[in-house]
Amino acid sequence: VQLQASGGGLVRTGGSLRLSCAASEQTFSVGFMGWFRQVPGKEREFVAYIDKRGGTTYYADSVKGRFTISRDNAKNTVYLQMNSLKPEDTAVYYCSGSGDSRSRLITSAVRDAAMYPYWGQGTLVTVSS
Questions:
Q1: Strands (E), the chain
Q2: 19, 40 Cβ separation under 8 angstroms
Q3: d(C-alpha 7, C-alpha 5), whole Å
Q4: Which 8-state DSSP code applies to residue 29?
Q5: How many C-beta atoms lie closer than 10 Å to residue 44's C-beta?
């Protein structure tokens, strides 16, 4: 499975961006998916999770209420709508796929980058103050 993330860029504080993640095969078969982010010198940080059908989502506390993850399995694409952006949201954002079709949400598991064998190349989001 290959994942291609896009949509990053430079935006001012309070602005919005929508990231996209296109999969090389049916996203339904990719299982649950996630978005993570990373800044230099820090570990990759969980941002959001969505189950394979798009019915269950889960967010890091730092983005809850501002970011929305969604998926369109007909288009083999997962999205991350980011609103009310803050400078601390500046990072390289990665989409990820688990290959796991289980629907039960185990928050400690889906927050773990090791659960995701498939990764996109990352897209840079810069939020200026």
A1: 3-6, 9-12, 17-23, 33-38, 45-50, 57-59, 67-72, 77-82, 91-97, 118-119, 123-128
A2: no
A3: 7
A4: H
A5: 17
- CB 116, CB 28: distance < 8 Å: no
User: 126, 129, 120: which is closest to 44 by C-alpha?
Assistant: 120
Joined tokens for residue 70: 């969604």
Question: Residue 44 contacts by C-beta under 8 Å, 6 or more apart in sequence?
Answer: 36, 37, 38, 94, 113
Type of residue at 72: D
Does residue 32 register a pLDDT over 90?
yes
Name every residue whose Cβ is closer than 8 Å to that of residue 6 and which is 6 or more positions away in sequence: 19, 20, 21, 22, 123
What integer pLDDT is reported at residue 40 of this predicted model?
93
**Rounded to whole angstroms, how far apart are CA atoms 30 and 33?**
7
**Joined tokens for residue 46:** 């969980």
Confidence of residue 88 (pLDDT cuts 50, 70, 90): very high
